[in-house]
Amino acid sequence: MVRTGSASVAAGPTLAVVAREAGVSVPTASKVVNGREDVAPETRRRVTEALDRLGYVRRPRFDASKPPGLVDLVVHSLETSWSGAVLHGVEEAAHDAGLEVVVSAALTRSRGGGPDRGWLDKIIARGSSGVLFNLAELTTSQYSWLEQHRIPFVMIDPVLEPPPGVVSVGAANWQGGVSATEHLLALGHERVAVIAGHRRKVCSNARVAGYRSALAAAGVRGRPEYQRHAGFDEAVARDRMLELLDLPEPPTAVFVCSDRMALGVYEALAERGLSVPDDMSVVGFDDLPESRWVSPPLTTVRQPLSEMSATALRLLVRMMDGKRPEGTRTELSTRLVERASTAPPATARPRTLVPEQPEGARRR
Hints:
Order of helices and strands: EEHHHEHEHEHEEHEHEHEHEHEHEEH
Number of strands: 14
Shape: elongated
Strand order of the largest sheet: 4-3-5-6-7-13
Helix content: 25-40%
Strand content: 15-25%
Mean pLDDT: 84
Distance between the termini: 100 Å
Number of helices: 13
Oligomer: single chain
Structural class: alpha/beta
């Protein structure tokens, strides 16, 4: 044991031990620990795996007693309009708080399946005072790392249910699923399908639960064959829609649990020569810009991405000031945005009768 004042902590491995375990020099191990870029990928992998195996813990470089000036935003990808909405909300709230934001697009696991700590090391190297994680799937090791370094953090729409005590911000996904399904039922649809995201993801499960609750409340039997999962992937959603169309009794409407997947549904319907909403009503979820660009514009459930992100930043600022939120989960409301992709089922719409023309006129 090593004593610091009156407190006792277990002595962790030295950097020399980590370097020996990884088969590298101490200066090379130090470069990895400090987030330097001039290290070969394979070398970085060996060092980070050794760090995790040995439980190496460094002292944070930033002084928590100083006014915060820098926060990190770690996102899964920067290639989607979803990320753009998140960035917009964080940037505006950070500007109001007088903070600078560093954005990292990082996967949370390495190619070998172990935790990827490269971006965690950089947080310390930069002296960030807090972190926002968007759509992140953190490991137990990474949660422990953040706690050990006493770095405040907030999850924005976490992939999995976070551990007890972890602060997160999300949308009212269950209510959104209810609203989407109730809208289709009110139009007269009884054969309503759902194309969900990942089976493990918290938000996807909540949206499907809302769908099922709305069907049950309306006395409509839920059909297992009408429930499909596409992992929030546009191409897979297209395939799932084609499977639904091949059923002996296909649905007349579909609730798609993301706008991106709804684009795949549109593609599948077009391939079969079917139109929206005449042959199939479609409701999405998110209200991304794509939902307004498609033809016809997509009826969807709006989740306030920018507002969620701004709320998360404000909670993080309070935590950096040493104040804990009253609750660990903050949910912002969703609402249905009606556009042109939904209509009553074809069997419920009055037929437009075309006056019969004289036989001579038909020949012409």
